[in-house]
Amino acid sequence: MNATELEKAAGQEAPARTRKRQADTGVQPIVRYEHVSKSFGDLEVLHDINLDIAPGEKVAMIGPSGSGKTTLGRMLMTLEEPSGGMITVDGEPLWHMKSKGRLVKANEAHLHRMRGNIGMVFQHFNLFPHMSVLRNVTIGPRKVLGISAEEAHERAVTMLGKVGLGDKLDVYPSMLSGGQKQRVAIARALVMNPKIMVFDEVTSALDPELVGEVLEVIKEIAREGEMAMMLITHEMDFARDVADRVIFGAEGHIVEQGPPEQIFENPQSERLQSFLSRFRLS
Amino acid sequence: MMDVPWNDFYPLLWEGLKVTVEVAVLSALAALVLSLVIGLCRVSKFKTVRIISQICTEVFRGLPLLVLLFWVYFALPFLGVEFDKVTSAVVAIGLNYGAFGSEIVRSAILAVPNGQSEAARALNFSPLQRMIYIILPQAALRMLPPFGNLMIELIKGTSLIYFITLSDLTYQALILRNNFLSMTPYIFLLLLLIYFVLSSFVSVTVRLLERKLAAGRL
């Protein structure tokens, strides 16, 4: 994307539109995707995505594999750079920064500052295998937030208690079940206190009988939280229970979105109807 | 067997052992440091750094150690660079084995799953912190067995330093052989045993380190 396009995407017209939308909802969105696209080589996996997430809002993203929902989350976590458009987090551009009055590609320092707002839980947990459970959860606060060892310990113990693993502090990840690993990963992300958290298909790699314990933990967090959540999931019951809004995406477009009742009870588009027909909802 | 003058062998071999161990330890340190530096450069995000370090690897890996030794000790003085014998040996062996080691470091770093780096980034670690706290500790475990191999190779490689007139173990054995020609098999048997003990020491150390580093991991 060249500089003129960038300014067009983010420059003169955008503020007016931003003010209008803010007037609509009364609050500034915590995350805003504007005309975001993403290509891998010649393959465009996301086309012109526009999406706002309000502070504290729980948004579930559903859709067939390859619809681009994971990519949407990974771009927010700065693991994947958008090919076009703008992502704004808490009013500030994520992948761009102002330099001499122009928007340019963000440098590592800007990304570092912005990433503090965002957390992520991965499909394959990605726990650090060379560290105990406790150390997995304390290392972020210690090294990144610069918190004292005592306080980091205290926070981590509280957080691990919350996800039901208070008795596993000194165990290494290899000794845990998949469900326990994922709960450690959730504690590890939560302890950093993000404003928005991406849950990327966090139960897809789990044995069926372990899915429930992880979803329960997430529901619990969702109930108490001012934290916004982007829940990328294939668990339709879970999406219906937890989400304030459900977004159905297919082939790189947002096809339909709305409150869970509407999406699951009264789907409008044919795509969504045929997608949902493949899930048996309880 | 009765008339083998073992006691005449030991003093000279002991002198040689000291030189061999000194050169081996120093060049092992040099090789390890070089491996790490070049290996890290090989995965740098800057292309120039990657290319320069790759050239280093290819050059110093591709030269026979003996030729490298001759270059450092006999040829460099003509270009105004002069090292004493031990330093020459350490430079040549360090460069040669460091080049091999850099490949070990590079491949071990690349073998750490990408998800580890992504998880570290999601926790907002800086690139340096990612390397120090997450990638290198995991890569270290993968590096240990091949590094054990490399160190054993290095110890055996030091037997070439008598070509630049360092009186190492091999050199002393050859002197002994001149003095006790009929004892040649016994002298060389002793020599074999000493090298074997040295390498076994490395093997055992590496295995202990591996066990320690792997604690908790399956």
Summarize it.
The complex is a heterodimer of chains A (282) and B (218). With 282 residues, chain A is α/β, with parallel strands linked by helices.
Outline the structure in words.
The complex is a heterodimer of chains A (282) and B (218). Chain A is an alpha/beta fold. Chain A has one domain: P-loop containing nucleotide triphosphate hydrolases (Rossmann fold). Helix content of chain A is 40%, strand content 24%. Chain A has eleven helices and twelve strands. Chain A has a six-stranded mixed β-sheet with strand order 8-9-10-3-11-12, sandwiched between helices. In chain A, strands 2-1-4-5 form a four-stranded antiparallel β-sheet. Chain A has a two-stranded antiparallel sheet with strand order 6-7. In chain A, a hairpin with a 2-residue loop joins β4 and β5. In chain A, α5 crosses α6 and α5 runs parallel beside α7. Chain A is globular, with a radius of gyration of 19 Å. The N and C termini of chain A lie far apart (46 Å). The N terminus of chain A is likely disordered. Chain B has 218 residues and is mostly helical. Chain B has one domain: Orthogonal Bundle (MetI-like fold). Chain B is built from eight helices and no strands. In chain B, α1 runs antiparallel to α2 and α5 runs antiparallel to α6. Chain B is flat, with a radius of gyration of 21 Å. The termini of chain B are far apart. The model of chain B has no long low-confidence stretch (mean pLDDT 93). The interface between A and B is medium-sized, with 29 and 24 residues.
